[in-house]
Amino acid sequence: MKPITITKSCQLKADVLTVNGCEEPFDFKELVADASLRRRMSRIVKMGVACGLKCAEDLPSDSIDGIVTATGLGCLGDTEKFMESIVVNNERLLNPTPFIQSTFNTIGGQIALLRGIHSYNVTYVHRGLSFESALIDAAMQVAEGRRNILLGAVDEITASSADIQRRLGMTRDYELGEGANFFVLNAATPGSNQTTVVDIDTRSGKLTDDELSKLIIEMAKRNGINASDLCVVANCNAATTDSVANRLSLKNKPLPFKTCEYHTLSAQALDFAINNSTANNTLIISDYQGINHSLILLGRI
Amino acid sequence: MKIAVTGLGAVSGIGLDVDENIDALKHKRHGMEKPHFFTHLDVPVSEVKVPNVTLLEYLGYDYNFFLSRTALFGITAAREALSDSGIDVHKMRVGLISSTSVGGMDLSEEFYYSFRENHEHGRLRWVSQHDCGSSTELIAKCLHITGFRTTVSTACSSAGNAIMLGARMLKNNMLDAVIAGGTDALCKFTLNGFNSLMILDKEHCRPFDATRAGLNLGEGAGYIVMQRLDDAKREPYCLLTGYANANDAYHQTGCSPEGNGAYKSMSEAMAVAGLQPSDIDYINVHGTATPNNDLSEATAIRRIFGDRVPPFSSVKAFIGHTLGASEGIEAVYSALSVKNGYIYPNLNFKLVDPNIGLSPETEFAEGRNIRNVLSNAFGFGGNDTSLIFSKID
Predict the structure, then answer these.
(1) How far is it, in rounded angstroms, from Cα A145 to Cα A140?
(2) Which of these, A56, A224, A236, B289, could form a disulfide with B205 (CB 3.0-4.6 Å)?
């Protein structure tokens, strides 16, 4: 089987853009030349479009065979803006822009539009497994013979969503996070500094540390790896990390990652793993609110 | 590897199950009425004709089971599809791939009235089903599906993309069976959104007619169960042989005059199925009845089929545009079209549009030899999906 290689990773978080882990200055005006289009774009759309365009900038449009995006809650700012206008204007003479932009596939659609990319374009919106769903699709696309796939994830914090998530008790353990991440996946033979996607597993519902460890051992086994050799990137809490490290008798100390929480944080964890782990096999363990769990197994030559 | 369709489930403004839907299509009973919920907008919509409590009772659930209407429709249709397939979810890897464009917005709207005055107000249960994944998780819970599930949201083509992912996961041996489709409840948010775009017709919509002036919205859910043909225990309805998603990359909400995205999705779906234009016997068009969509779609169809355009029709005047559920419900209709040789009537078509020069089918027919049905679903963001349902040789 051909490898599924990640040839580029970009992250935009707190106005800082990193390309393959290195900070890079960027000018949104250069990325989106049309001033009126820029003005219409909300914060999350700008964030996602900027990160996606930077990630795809070296690739000719006709070499991109797919854009697969993920978001837990989508364009919340626009959603609230339109809802507020319905109430305030009593359903009359509403500006359609926030409604149009509230659509979950806005960012994928805008990147396609700005770059003239006519290929496959799908968006996943499944809680803490949104990014994993997109990654599964993207990896499958590469395995099916497609060339470059632009894979991304974006979520934003808004004042309202922060209040609601606090009231729902979702911010007890971690503060809310946000960010945009994009990756280029293809079947290129990986270079010495490049990461490949080896395996992905997802689970919903409660999962004990014992069950989690068993899933990891099964995954390692079916990929011909000793679980104890894995370098773990822990996108989960410290107690789970320690417990799993003990059960698997990990030789390497896990790399702690999780300092905040949001639906597509595992995309940031992937960026972190690509740029910080030098091990042959890295495993990202993600946990969202104790209800969504994922394992992303990565390889490096 | 062949993908078989082994179960169907649908709920819409014209029926609570597949049989009721087909009966209404046969007898030209559409679902358009004035909206029942509070709105100033005077536009026809195709609502599912029963309140939530009646649906809960129909499903045998306690009336206190707190569900968004989106989840409720999803459970209704997905349960019908699963039971139709005869699959035991405990005996194989069964996945659920559901789509929605608004999730639990019907509840969030209620929450928002109190919340906007004071962020500490508003009952939390009314917002806890807001995210799209919530409806999918609730369907999975009610159907005892413990394996892979995800949610797709690409506006009006969502369910087509959910079905496409399901077929690919079966081909890649990641699942043994998959329930795929979509669900969407009407809400003030969507109705006002489409109204602000000025693409709602105040009258009953008229797909492909020269006087068409916009779409009518609808609600409901539709799911199909797919398995690898070799694994299918019951006789399948048909095969899913082709699928493709392409992007028009022309405008965030409008379609290109040449129908580039639609041309690409239809052509690629035929290539995946290994079919020529002459193999397609019926097209279930997206046909929303907006001047823009129907012209663009017809142009793309002309580019592929030339002067040999197969019989085609739009069911949108029956069930409305059901957005995230649209291709789920229409996939069910398309599968039955292959199985029983059904052609569905395109209601309200009287006058040929000179810019289109094509007339859709206006009468119900059955027993036709339909080898392959091409079904289209196009959405915002230039998102175009085409599926092909085929007879089993």
Answers:
(1) 9
(2) B289
Chain-chain contact of A109 with B381 (C-beta, under 8 angstroms):
yes
Place of tokens 């089929």: B305
pTM (predicted TM-score): 0.98
Residues 55-84 of A with CB under 8 A from B: 67, 72-74, 79, 82-84
Distances from the Cα of B342 to the Cα of A242, B335, B361, angstroms: 61, 9, 11
CATH class of A5-186: alpha beta
Question: How many of the other CB atoms lie within 10 Å of CB of A285?
Answer: 25
* Encoded amino acid at A54, one letter: K
Domain boundaries, chain A: 5-186, 195-300
CATH assignment of the domain containing B15: 3.40.47.10
Distance, in Å, from the CA atom of A292 to the CA atom of A37, rounded to the nearest integer, reads 36
CB proximity under 8 Å: A 89-108 to B: 90-92, 94-96, 99-100, 102-106, 108
CATH topology of domain A195-300: Peroxisomal Thiolase; Chain A, domain 1 (3.40.47)
Amino acid at B310: P
Could you write out the DSSP letters of every residue in B231-280?
G--SPPSEEEEEEEEEE--S-SSS--TT-HHHHHHHHHHHHHHT--GGG-
The complex's ipTM works out to 0.97
Distance CA A18, CA B373 (A): 47
Q: Do domains A5-186 and A195-300 have the same CATH topology?
A: yes
**Which among A102, A109, A125 is the nearest to B132, CB-wise?**
A125
Per-residue pLDDT reduced to its tens digit, B163-210 = 999 999 999 999 999 999 999 999 999 999 999 999 999 999 999 999
Cα–Cα distance for residue pair B11/B9, rounded to 1 Å: 7
